[in-house]
Amino acid sequence: METPQEENTSFLQSNTAKMIMVGLLTLVLLIPLQFVKSLIEERALRQKEVISETGEKWGESVYFYGPIVKVPYKTYTETISVNEKTKERTTEKTASTEYAYFFPDELKNSSNVKTKVLKRSNYESVVFTSDMKFDGKYSKPDFSSKNIPDADILWDEATILIQTTNLKSIRDEVKINLGNAAYTFEPVYSTKKDSVEALETGFINSAAFQSGGQTPFHFDLVYNGSQQIRMVPIGKTTTAKITSNWHSPKFDGNFLPDDKTKTVSDKGFRADWKILHINRAFSQQSFEFLPDLAKYAFGVDFIIPVNQYQQNERAAKYGFLVIGLTFLIFFLIQSISKIKIHIFQYSMIGLALIMFYTLLISITEHSSFLKAYLISGISVVLMIALYSISILKNRKFPAFIGTSLAVLYSFIYVIIQLENYALLFGSIGLFLILGAVMYFSRKIDWN
């Protein structure tokens, strides 16, 4: 009859006890793996800070809203007062000035955007110089909806207004040709915090507007910017064309470009938009205030599609899978061959697997992700394979382990690179791995 001490010793040497210890070790190793993920997040945050600092110095994102005809007009407020003694009523009119804003009938934009990548230390960001040309036509501003007499419209004080978020990165003087005259824009100072910056001309000759015909306009803008370009389609018909040497645009905003004419290649892209006034929920004029129409803007983002830190983050997410499957391979070999593997040896193998991610992120910052992945993967696979020779006392099992790890790392790399088919490919791969584990573990005596 076995004593309780012998029964306890027998249990500790069983496959069940070994499996529990290996499982607990796998959970413990999630702690240093989480530290690695935090390191990746810290480096990624630092890159965002560098991009923000570069944008502040070179030029931030471009937002354009204009040109808008701004016409002042008089309004009157009647105040009635009653004399308490004589009971006579007197009416007093007080005049005040309001502003009406009118959008063009046609607005055409043609923008050529030249991008380049700026590097600072180990980080990089995309900046651009955009040459933007605007053409269009205005019709006579219509005050009939407000029943404002022509005598109360201050035509001689009309101006042209442009709103933007990036005055400091405009590279040249901004002039508009309106009819047969040219006008220069000047910045408008605003006391409102976080308000959109603006450019405004001096008083314009509004005789062309009052004639009833259409008045053409043209002006150019040269911006230094970063990250994105946004425009508000304020024309009754708005057409825009953006060409660039950037290979990875992200078309965003309230309107997408025409798929029939859009082209994207390694040499750059071209995109065309045509937006009608019936496509957006605002009219061609506004009285008393200029509405915020940023939600109707359209444009393009200039992004690095999958940067090195995103790829490292994706790789680290599979860390638990790599550790778990590697330990499972060693456990199956231990169970089949009856070779004893100490928990300390499992720990050394687990730490080697975690070192893969620290090597990966550090090498990626000085090279491409592919090269870093190859160097880190080969180094860790060789280290574990050589260490396995001393543990397993032969070369057959270490060769199998090295091959399995190489296949596993290759499988994870493919998943990282895939976008649309990552889930499908990963699910099929995991299904095949589970089938292999079930096949090789079928003859193990779990008792």
From TrEMBL:
InterPro entries: Uncharacterised_IM_CreD
PANTHER family linked: INNER MEMBRANE PROTEIN CRED (PTHR30092)
Membrane-spanning parts: 20-40, 318-337, 343-360, 372-391, 397-416, 423-441
Name of the protein described by the UniProt record: Inner membrane protein
Keywords, alphabetical: Membrane, Transmembrane, Transmembrane helix
Assigned GO CC terms: plasma membrane
Signal peptide: none
